[in-house]
Amino acid sequence: MSAGSGVSVPTGSLRHVLTALDEAAVGRWSRAAANALRASRGRLDELNVFPVPDGDTGTNLLLTAQAAAESEAAGGEGPALTRWARGAVLGARGNSGAILAQLLAGLADRLAAPGPAPRAVDGPALAGALEHAARSAYEAVAEPAEGTFLTVARSGAEAAAAAVREGREALADVVRAAADGARRALHGTTEQLEALRAAGVVDAGGAGWCVVLDALVATVTGTEPDRPPLARRTGRPHRHEHDGVGTHLHAPVPDAGSEVQFLLADSTEAAVDRLRAELGWLGDCLVVVGIDTPTGREWNVHVHVHDVGAAVEAGIRAGRPHHISVTALAPVQVAPALPGSRLTIALVPDGPAAEGAGELFAAEGVEVLTVGLPVDADDTPAVDRVRAAVREAALTSGAADLVLLPGDPSLVGPVTRAAAQVREEGRDVAVVPTRSLVQGLAAVAVADPQLRFADDVIAMTEAASATRWAEVVLATGEALTSAGRCHPGDVLGIVEGDVVVIGAAQVAVTCELLDRLLAGGGELVTLLGGRLAEAAATHLAARHPTVEVAVHPLGQGPRPLLIGVE
């Protein structure tokens, strides 16, 4: 047995490489996957730092796989793959278990054709089913993120499909391609998520899927893939590290929320859609997976919330919840403050521009926290998530002095409240009330760790306040603004929160916006964006040649250009 996979397959019973995956092979795969996850459970638990560092991914995957394998082995209604998927959905544990269940359900949707003679699956059919399963997993997760289980599953499916397109259609070639493609993507997850990078690990759920695919390779070929052992952590699971740090003693912080999971019967797709929306409002890490059973369709619902009662009540409104489990999530682990240590944390709104903006701040030695923006002040769940994320980032940083940069008007309030909580934990925290990313960049440009903390904060605040900010935004609805009525698709020029220009062409609106801004003076214009930033720079060179211009590329989105004027 290879050191990395833990797959146990009786190779003596496999006299040749399979050309199709039949009922017996599905049964062997289900048992091999459970055995492999059992062997890998401890290492997978150790890798678990995202979305919650509660060290149970391996355990949850194993419990899900065991329930699935037992369901398949018990026989009963439907093909083997249907029974396997049904057992996974009804027995799924945790976030990772729910995603594994959805992947198996997606495979069954495509491959487990009803009828007296279950279908034998060849390479092209399996490749197509893997792609369908990956898509269905993305759809089941309310807020899919890259660098996770989903990325690994999609990459494995894409590699399988590529093998078929290249003419390598044999089942053995397809399963090897899927397993190898997933493994390559797994290694890349460390750099895709900050939590994984800080801990020096790959994604635990993705690693578990690699184990399941290796079990498939062993089932089809009779030979286990030669894999190195899953790497252990190379860093500490903290967001920021400081030189000269010895042993960290951790104290738990309460109110980390709870994981709620239940099965839902006697419901409809419409009711489940409403449930998704309601639970998405209440919490995060939402995964909803449905499966047909002999008694009707059931759904496995998983979510992390602070209000357990509200989550269960939402389930009751949607149908009949049963097998309800509530588990307290692992508390935030507080890193002791290091005397004299200082850290700036910049919040970056999630979206197409997040990666580029994060790189700008990271280049200045700033910790970056990507968050979803609250819709408004009444968006309590989103506000709570921001506050909790800021608090966790601050308390796990190990820094005694912290500067927080909100970066958006909707984040100033939640960040200020989070700062008050962190102060109660003994940290010295200051909020520089930046309302735009360009103000944050102006603040960090003057930061000086050699200054007294209070003096440094004053200098950063003055730099941010001296930076007028503006943005070009694409209207998504009809509204009455200070510049008149706008309609969906209109281009809005906004200065410090007020709409001052409405037009149809992005470049024209941008040029008028810049001219208005510079009518009041300005020596430096910072442009964050894509092609529109380049067009803006060209306009400035022609109309305002004495102004210094700095252009930084960002991804396109509903805010194609951010502007700062100093």
UniProtKB/TrEMBL annotation:
MF annotations from Gene Ontology: glycerone kinase activity; methyltransferase activity
Domain DhaL: 24-218
Any one biological process term the GO annotation gives: glycerol metabolic process
InterPro entries: 4pyrrol_Methylase_sf (IPR035996), DegV_domain_contain (IPR050270), DhaL_dom (IPR004007), DhaL_dom_sf (IPR036117), FakA-like_C (IPR033470), FakA-like_M (IPR048394)
Entry's transmembrane regions: none
Organism listed in the record: Klenkia marina
Endpoints of the signal sequence: none
A family per Pfam: FakA-like_M
SMART domains (alphabetical): Dak1_2, Dak2
Protein name as it appears in the record: DhaL domain-containing protein
Domain of life: Bacteria
